[in-house]
Amino acid sequence: MSRGESGSYASTRSMSFNLGDGPANALALSKDNSHVVVAGRNVFKILSIEEDCFVEKVNLRVGKNLNLNYSCNDVVWSILDENLIATGATNGAVVLWNLSKITRAKQEHVFADHQRTVHKVVFHPTDPFMLLSGSQDGTVKCFDLRVREAKLTFKSNSESVRDVQFLPKNNFSFTSVSENGSVQLWDVRKGGERPFLTFTAHSGPVFSCDWHPDSPNILATGGRDRAIKVWTVTNVASLEHSIATVASVGRIKWRPQRKNHIGSTSLVVDASVCVWDVRRPFVPFAAFEKHKDVATGIIWKSSPHIFLSTSKDCTVWQHVFRDATRPASKAMPQALAVNVRRGEIAQAVTTYQSDSAAPPRFPIFNRKTASLDEQFHMARSLFFTFEAGRLLRDGFRVECAERYTLIGKSAQELCDINSKIALSLNMKSVALVWEITKLFLNTRVTEPVPHIETTKVTVPTPNHVSQAPPKPKEDNEDHISDDDQNHSSSELESQDVLGEIASGLHMTQNLFMSAGPTYEFQINQEGPVLPAEAFQHRHEIREGSPPLHLEDCSPRDVDEAIETVAVENRTSYLKFKFVDPVPAFDFSESLTKALQFHAKEGDVQTAVCVWLVLSPLYKLPIERRVLEAWCYAYIELLQRNRLYAQAAVVIKHCGVLGHLSQESTSYLICCGKCGKPLTQKAGNFCDKCRKAVARCGVCHMTVTGLMSWCQGCGHGGHIEHLRKWFSGHKECPVGCGHVCHS
Amino acid sequence: MFVARGVKTDHKDLIHDVAFDYYGTRMATCSSDQTVRVWELDAQAGNWNCMANWKAHSGSVWKVTWANPEYGQVIATCSFDRTAAVWEEVVGEGSIGDRVSATHWVKRTTLVDSRTSVTDVKFAPRYLGLVLATCSADGFVRIYEAPDVMNLTQWSLQYEIPVKLSCSCIAWNPTYPRHFAPMIAVGIDESTPEVPKVMIYEFNENLRRWNRIESLKDITDPVNDLSFAPNLGRSHHLLGVATKDLKVVSLEPTMVEDDNQVPSSNKVTTRTIAQCSDHNSTVWRVAWNVTGTILASSGDDGCVRLWKGNYMGNWRCVSILRGDGTQATVEPTSAAASATSPVGSFGNSRFMKLGAAAALKQDVVWH
């Protein structure tokens, strides 16, 4: 009864049988494919293969004396005698079993010729009396079943033979594969002395080999080096294909009636049984993932659609191709990436291209089968890059980033400069924004906006006069009365450029600022909120860097009101003194909206740059969160374009991301004499040497700051001292004798 | 106007992923042929030259991703072989084929926690440190951290998030964190329509664990790819999702205002703001431009489409890019074959002739 034809294949289904007694090592089918024998260390059973299940027929592991002869590594069913089964036992015995025996124990004969475990037994395809066995002792033995003795011994060149197989359609030759990675071909007629061909197939042990059932001279080998290799073996062996598997290859078996397909099991890790197309060596054609542990044996049921496998999980499975998973169909067929910097897109798409360049002749017919089976191995990726130009860089111009001036001049001038830059790059709307900003600034100076007065609550106590940093802002004064106590402390002075900008700001304000009366007026206007805040002098220190000039840090209005800062305050005095309270057009709102619009369109560049230019004078009512995101995005854009200097300017002056410049910068120092790392606490004093690390060789004082030293002897000191010394000497000032100055 | 260039990659099987580095001057591709290739831009000619090529895994390499350059030249890969790996370029003699190069790539670690294929790997945004997220077909998202950024061989598994469904892709929310907690979106490729296909996880600073805060239920088809848009001060996040069609989902966190702490939103309101089926076929990949205004998608029709939301929030296809205009330069012999055969399909996807796709949109300037 042959169920292997594709006609009956449709009714066959995947099914399993739990052996229960232990993991199986091998299985073999009877000649008519109706029964399967499964063998392992603790299991030896014959199952009949029914329509939709396995049925246990015979348990061969019976008898009084269950010795190691019953512990099987391999099993084979005679092709010619359906009652004859041979097993290779773990103790080195080759055991014959006769199913026609009437007794319960079917053991017929034991060949105890091998010294160690027998890995493989195989019957001759045509001679019913010839049996081969390959063993861990490094020999292959040929048994004659008529005389019940080992006729020939073939000594391989290695310690262990893992697989043997007769050549198909050749009655006298067989191959053996061994643990040293070599494959040997033997002729039984020539005896056991020398193989007629030896070649190294794998780096590491070869565990399995299989001759192609139809194509002559095609041999597949599988080894621990995670490869299945396909060879054409004539007088020499030449490698045709090499399949890269996930794990060491345990067993391999060609798929019947398919020229290029081979099934494989893994020795470790991977529990699935894979069927490969040798022409596509990286992706399994089909995978069968029923087993829960590694499969140990596979055998095709003479049909390309059905095979059986055993596994260490103590089960036998009948697999049907219909139920296979197709790994290739799960694989991502495309790739896509946007190059953030260059406005470029990379794409990879799958295509099916035949190597012969011949288009499929009947693409309309059998497309379905063609697309899966025939085209499977032709899958390749085409890879393209698209330069989409400005489109993708939406809102970021390197030229702008490079040429914009954001600090160092009056805000109006900056606007002028940047507007021209934008115009020269044909960015009219951006240029317009700059123009509006300038206009806005002008109005701010002359025409204060009424609504702002409500915001100012910081107490301007002109009690402290600090020297103005030598940096004239606008067109005014030299004298600064720092109105905020805050700034009277070291904070402001300790800031560098940042501080200058900030105080520049104060100058502007103070120009218009008189003392007491204004203040009182403000109080009247502002109502009772003031006193509480009068005592909030210090900034809350946020992210390690004090906000530039947010004098008002009351938590109440962290988000919005705070952004309108001192400037407005002062301008409100201005109003009180010089200006009629005519409600002027409020640019701040529209300007804010303009910036928000640009940011939304991806143009954070404009948004951040305008904000930066404005910020010393006027804080637009933009949420801190939003501002941070803008600045962060813009800084990242700059960094991606390697515009580090520009990025540093933004970090420094944006006022919200000051901590970035304090991150990820660390330096480690160690003593130059003994190499011991210096702790922060001790400064430049080495604990081990009990000395200051850097001492001047001339004055013997500790050097702080710049130090110069000789790379030859390692002594050095203050640059000036050394310069003086070496103007008259050539030797080291320490007296070590080294001629430093040559 | 765009310029399409074919690049001969010499990958021997499908290319599954391509990634540009932070500066956009290097590119990494990975393939089923188990290798990774690193390319460098020839700035004058505009060509990409392969600078390194090595066997990275013993299975298909699904994804490749670059770390921020402050950690060195580091990439991570993940593979069918159940592992993810971290590679670093070191100075020292290496070779690409017969050429000798001054650097080579060294495997720094292998992350072996998954029992099944690792389907995606992504470095976290820079502010989180050197952190790597992987997701695998067995339904776990794993988050690793290298506590010492100078030592890439030490990675500790920080969190193992059971998603319980086969994950296909993962995306970090790149939003600057001070007002949002770290967030991850996970794509599911289960074929059963009932289960949610996109999960949103958020890190809770107080509980020190990742919580699922949302699962997008209106996406019913397996998700192939997803990507967060860079957030430029928006109050909501944008997530591009590649599934049967292209979706753009907005995630609006309901903020718990808290003065100085990072707010953990615990809840997001999701809204599908765009659903685009212009590809007329499965969409496989999505990618945002750096400002988060343009979304690129790649579909089974072989085209790259660029999408942009207008001021009304309507998303429109603004451009179609196709590589076949220059296919002849890629592989002259194959041009005929690939023109007649459908591009990229396995079984369930719909076929589309290349010519037909071009006819959909008239106003694209071809170069």
TrEMBL record, chain A:
<dbReference type="GO" id="GO:0005829">
    <property type="term" value="C:cytosol"/>
</dbReference>
<dbReference type="InterPro" id="IPR015943">
    <property type="entry name" value="WD40/YVTN_repeat-like_dom_sf"/>
</dbReference>
<dbReference type="Pfam" id="PF00400">
    <property type="entry name" value="WD40"/>
</dbReference>
<feature type="compositionally biased region" description="Polar residues">
    <location>
        <begin position="455"/>
        <end position="466"/>
    </location>
</feature>
<feature type="repeat" description="WD">
    <location>
        <begin position="111"/>
        <end position="153"/>
    </location>
</feature>
<protein>
    <recommendedName>
        <fullName>GATOR2 complex protein WDR24</fullName>
    </recommendedName>
</protein>
<feature type="repeat" description="WD">
    <location>
        <begin position="154"/>
        <end position="191"/>
    </location>
</feature>
<feature type="region of interest" description="Disordered">
    <location>
        <begin position="454"/>
        <end position="492"/>
    </location>
</feature>
<comment type="similarity">
    <text>Belongs to the WD repeat WDR24 family.</text>
</comment>
<dbReference type="InterPro" id="IPR037590">
    <property type="entry name" value="WDR24"/>
</dbReference>
<dbReference type="InterPro" id="IPR001680">
    <property type="entry name" value="WD40_rpt"/>
</dbReference>
<dbReference type="InterPro" id="IPR036322">
    <property type="entry name" value="WD40_repeat_dom_sf"/>
</dbReference>
<dbReference type="GO" id="GO:0034198">
    <property type="term" value="P:cellular response to amino acid starvation"/>
</dbReference>
<keyword id="KW-0677">Repeat</keyword>
<dbReference type="GO" id="GO:0005774">
    <property type="term" value="C:vacuolar membrane"/>
</dbReference>
<dbReference type="GO" id="GO:1904263">
    <property type="term" value="P:positive regulation of TORC1 signaling"/>
</dbReference>
<feature type="repeat" description="WD">
    <location>
        <begin position="199"/>
        <end position="241"/>
    </location>
</feature>
<dbReference type="GO" id="GO:0061700">
    <property type="term" value="C:GATOR2 complex"/>
</dbReference>
<feature type="compositionally biased region" description="Basic and acidic residues">
    <location>
        <begin position="471"/>
        <end position="486"/>
    </location>
</feature>
<keyword id="KW-0853">WD repeat</keyword>
<dbReference type="GO" id="GO:0016239">
    <property type="term" value="P:positive regulation of macroautophagy"/>
</dbReference>
From TrEMBL, chain B:
<dbReference type="GO" id="GO:0051301">
    <property type="term" value="P:cell division"/>
</dbReference>
<dbReference type="GO" id="GO:0005764">
    <property type="term" value="C:lysosome"/>
</dbReference>
<feature type="repeat" description="WD">
    <location>
        <begin position="276"/>
        <end position="308"/>
    </location>
</feature>
<keyword id="KW-0458">Lysosome</keyword>
<dbReference type="GO" id="GO:0031080">
    <property type="term" value="C:nuclear pore outer ring"/>
</dbReference>
<dbReference type="GO" id="GO:0035859">
    <property type="term" value="C:Seh1-associated complex"/>
</dbReference>
<dbReference type="GO" id="GO:0005198">
    <property type="term" value="F:structural molecule activity"/>
</dbReference>
<dbReference type="GO" id="GO:0034198">
    <property type="term" value="P:cellular response to amino acid starvation"/>
</dbReference>
<keyword id="KW-0653">Protein transport</keyword>
<keyword id="KW-0853">WD repeat</keyword>
<feature type="repeat" description="WD">
    <location>
        <begin position="8"/>
        <end position="42"/>
    </location>
</feature>
<keyword id="KW-0677">Repeat</keyword>
<keyword id="KW-0132">Cell division</keyword>
<keyword id="KW-0813">Transport</keyword>
<dbReference type="InterPro" id="IPR037363">
    <property type="entry name" value="Sec13/Seh1_fam"/>
</dbReference>
<dbReference type="InterPro" id="IPR019775">
    <property type="entry name" value="WD40_repeat_CS"/>
</dbReference>
<dbReference type="InterPro" id="IPR015943">
    <property type="entry name" value="WD40/YVTN_repeat-like_dom_sf"/>
</dbReference>
<keyword id="KW-0131">Cell cycle</keyword>
<dbReference type="InterPro" id="IPR020472">
    <property type="entry name" value="WD40_PAC1"/>
</dbReference>
<dbReference type="GO" id="GO:0015031">
    <property type="term" value="P:protein transport"/>
</dbReference>
<comment type="similarity">
    <text>Belongs to the WD repeat SEC13 family.</text>
</comment>
<keyword id="KW-0539">Nucleus</keyword>
